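Schema walkthrough. Field components (list of strings):
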Amino acid sequence: MVLAAFSDFMQQVVSGLASGGIYALLALALVIIHRSTGVINFAQGEMATLSTYIAWALIAHHGWRYAPAFVATLLISFVGGIAIHRVVIRPVERGSVLRIVIVTIGLLVAINGFVIWEWSGEPQQLQSPFGTDTYSIGGVVIAAHDIGTIAVALGIVLLLWVLFRFTKVGLALRAVAVNPEEARLVGVRVSWMLALGWGLAALLGAVAGMLTAPTVGLDPNMMAAVLIYSFAAAVLGGIDSPIGAVVGGLLIGVLLNLLSYLSQYDMFDWFTEELRLPMALLVILAVLLVRPQGIFGKPAVKRV
Amino acid sequence: MKTLLELDSVAARYGPVQALHNVSLVVREGEVVAVLGANGAGKTTTLRAISGIVSRTGAIELEGKSLKGGPEAAARAGIAHVPEGRGTFVDLTVTENLRLGAYSSRTRSVKADIKRVAEYFPWMLERGGQRAGTLSGGEQQMLALGRALMSRPRLMLLDEPSLGLAPLVVREFFRIVRKLNEEDGLTVLVVEQDARIALNASTRAYVLEVGRVALTGPSAELRDDESIRRSYLGY
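Field assembly_structure (string):
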């Protein structure tokens, strides 16, 4: 009895880590753009959806195998992200933050409309690269897709960390985030670094979308809820902290699953699946009220 | 001596405000040239015009080649600009700041260059992992200088390095600048409000008044002429 409860608990933790890994990737994308461009990219979810549709179309319509379709989608998304910055964001970049935010909201609507126009709103199936097997480890049943998702998310985070920490481009990206004026003085082409940030964010979104679709089904609005969880993750970790985005993502994923698990007990029986999104919003609100800089963020200091 | 930098009738404005009217000046290879003047005389704007932060009219040439484009282009042409108020990347470490200094240089040996720069500032090696924002004001100014050196500049622009620093730190800063000039042949154009220290550290000087060159000459002569000191330099 106790053992059954424990394996149930562990199952929820593992699948929470898997969805948390996806939130972490999308939250990282939000953080990268926020650090460089200074805004929340509301189109991040739809950009991920578009990428996922591209992967699906390559596989379902053009007969590609999964691996080359995956790689091609990453490339297309990366270039597409750069193009979005050059064509849509850059012209309004010198204006107020509000203008950029409105442009990203417009982008959200436009991409969503394009996806429906091109592929209709019918839900589609995108396969998981890890298959549909489940493993049982000591009574804990784990889906191969969940393990794969966790591994891919951690792998991507590791690659990004190496990029930011050890390469010249990564250093320049960070310098631009800290102080764009100074960065120009040492010869960094700031505008291209911002575009590169958008490219990386689009690439992260593509991975998140391709990992999301096999479990929730591919449809034009599939990333809407994921984006809210990722907002919560980014705010919880600290909107300017890449580590915070990862930790926040995993925390949100596990936290929501634990609430599902606890709902079998009287004290938490009020919790139903419909409350997952409101819980995420509650997290956002609570963090903003109690600790606006998040777990890893630095408090904003304004010179007066 | 060969002319390194030449400004011919340079003018610049911030919106409706004309900050520079007509500035012509020359910096020769191996010189330390000071630009002096009161607040608002156009000292900082002169430097910002050279490195392309503000748009300007008139001709600016580095080694006979016209300087065009923004600060990225100036950095590539060999100009290292240390802006007013330190100008370090506060969230990055000392070593990362130095690495960024070499961003536009073609050197393959960033590590060796860091060692070379650290000969002047040994503490930068020991405290390479420290965040720049946690350094003292003087240390940050030294780091900004070290970072500028990392690019192996043809010309170094220093904007008000004495600002907000203790006199002892200012003296140490200019001692190192002189040493770099004498030992490595570093050419420097320094803007300073503290005329006394700038005249001691420089070979020649220009005095700006409301966006124009009011007077120029060897630093020693300006320093020793009491009437000039009193009417232009205020000490």
